[in-house]
Amino acid sequence: MKGSNVCMKKEIKIIFKKCILIVIIAMSFTFNINSQVIVENPKKIKVAAISDWKPFSYLDLEGNSKGILIDFWKAWGRVNNVEVKFIMETSWTKTLELIKYGKADVHIGLFYNDDRSEYMDFGSPFIDLMTGIYVKEDINIFNINDIKDLGIGVTKENYARHYLENNYPDTKLLVYQDIKEVMEAVRKGKVKAVCIDYHNNFRKISFYYPELKDFELLQTIYTQPLRVGVKKGEKELLNFINDGIKKMSVNEIDGVKSKWEYITIYLTKDKVQKYILTASAIIIIFLIMNILFLRHRIALGIKRLAESEESYKELVKLFPHGIFVQQNDRVVFVNEAAVRILGQESYENIIDKRFIEFIQEDYKETVQSTIDKVKKSKITAPTLEQKGIKSNGEVIDIEITMNEITYKGKPAILTIIRDISRRKEREKEKQKILREKLKYERLKTEFFSNISHELRTPLNILLGTIQLINKVSENKNTHVHYDYYNKYSPIMTQNCYRLLRLINNLIDITKIDAGFFKMNFRNYNIVQVIEDITMSVAEYIKSKNLNIIFDTDIEEKIISCDADKIERVVLNLLSNAIKFTKAGGSIFINIYDKNDIVCISVKDTGIGIPKEEQETIFERFRQVHPLLNREKEGSGIGLSLVKSIVESHGGNIYLNSEYGKGSEFIIEIPANLKVEEESVLVDKISTEDKVEKINIEFSDIYS
Known about the structure:
Elements: H1 2-38, E1 44-50, E2 52-53, E3 57-59, E4 65-66, H2 68-80, E5 83-89, H3 92-100, E6 106-110, H4 114-117, E7 120-136, E8 152-155, H5 159-167, E9 173-176, H6 179-187, E10 193-198, E11 215-231, H7 235-247, H8 250-258, H9 269-318, E12 322-327, E13 330-334, H10 336-341, H11 364-377, E14 384-389, E15 395-407, E16 410-419, H12 421-472, H13 482-514, E17 522-525, H14 526-536, H15 538-543, E18 547-552, E19 558-561, H16 563-579, E20 586-594, E21 597-604, H17 611-614, H18 638-648, E22 652-658, E23 662-670, H19 687-697
Helix pairs in contact: 2-8, 12-13, 14-16, 16-18
């Protein structure tokens, strides 16, 4: 019984062991299956990266991912046939959260610390990162201890902040939210030292941060390796990434780094010797070619110089003015023209003599003073007009110019003389002619003035006598020859007025020439002046079977003028219009206001003026018709006097005329005002003055 129990126990133990073995085998099989699933290589990984961590990872202006680490992971993906997708975040905290909560597979690169190890597993180092202090160039410091009071700009989440707080507790830190705020503070001048990450040979940080263009690296505070970081427990993924890094060749890794570093050339002794020999050979060949080229240029230059020298010699020989070169107050060179101007027989008579020996005695001191001034001040002297002496003792007028030159390697004075004797003679002749002309004009002016006054006195007596007889003969019964006298009295009166008009015009022309023609400028209503004188002659014009039309676009325009002279101008123009307009014709007088200018137009429908004679119409003693065949009376002085009066007002007069259709005289007078102490507006001119003025101006009009 005992034996059977023992056998049963043994069988149970064997069965139990078999069951355990089966369970173990099954569990092992299951584990292997699971292991195969877990270690299956991923085809795509998501990398958490920082969007503003230059030059390691950042977004460019077009939103593309750039940086050393970006290029590294792209190369890793190509080697391992894995698609790499970058998830860009603006801060370290956000990138760490992506790993912590499984939203990203791997961190782009970071330091190891105990806090991060609680939720991350770290891989092997794969690239070094340096952190340095960059300081403004104009700050005179040697290390980080010199700027502890200046302050260092650093971002809140940067590892460097904690490093500086622990290792440099006395250093002032200026903490900003992100790197953009740091750079804005730099731009505004609030920060003059910053803490920035950089890589290996990369020193020119302003390439990525233009705000730091005036900054230089003061000190590297640490160099630490960057590691791969994955979510805690993702050992297989971490191993896969580490193995993938090991698969990357040295050339692939160096290719990534070299893109972001300065190029460094490593030279061996043999290479140096080879480069030196090559460079030396190139330099020697270049020098030989340059020497040959220069020799050719020099030879060509010498040839051209010789040709130029011959040309200059020929030019000096043909130069019409005298050329002297003086050294040590002696003439050392002279050209043919100088020998000819001074009347010398040969060069020997001038060479080695003083230049002032050929100057007239009264002018020697001035010429010598000019020579001394040119020597001392090294300037070009102003042109002088002096007198020279020829070999026969004849004095000639010469023009002298001097300046300093170099002659045969030594300082010298170049003197050029020009014979101006003929010019002086012509000037004397012109002066003589001018004096004679002025004398003639003065005599002519005096003659006209004297004869005008001599004629005016008896004429006034004659005119007064006629007026007296008219007064006495008002009652025809008291005079026997009343009818006879009444017939010829108007003719005598008109001719007296005509002669008086001629005399007045001659006197005024004489005064204008002599500059004694006086103008009495006062403030007048020019519209009223023109209208009154026009209305005064309206009946007379109508009696000639002519129409007169006066029109104005303004009722009042106060200007400074001589009203008496203006009336005289208008009467003269009306007199011409009446004389040359046939019965049934019309005369138009218009006034236009052009703000700063008053325009007066006198227009008729008369015979007009031929075009070829319009240019001379305002000249003195000029008339449209020939002297012996003219149809109307006149002296030819009136329009010349009109023009002078208008110009005395600062105005202008123009003529528009077409032969056979009529003429228009246009007067433009500035609308100036005279500042007067008395009344602004002057009263009208007396009626009696106007009547006599009309009689005089219209005296050459016959029925």
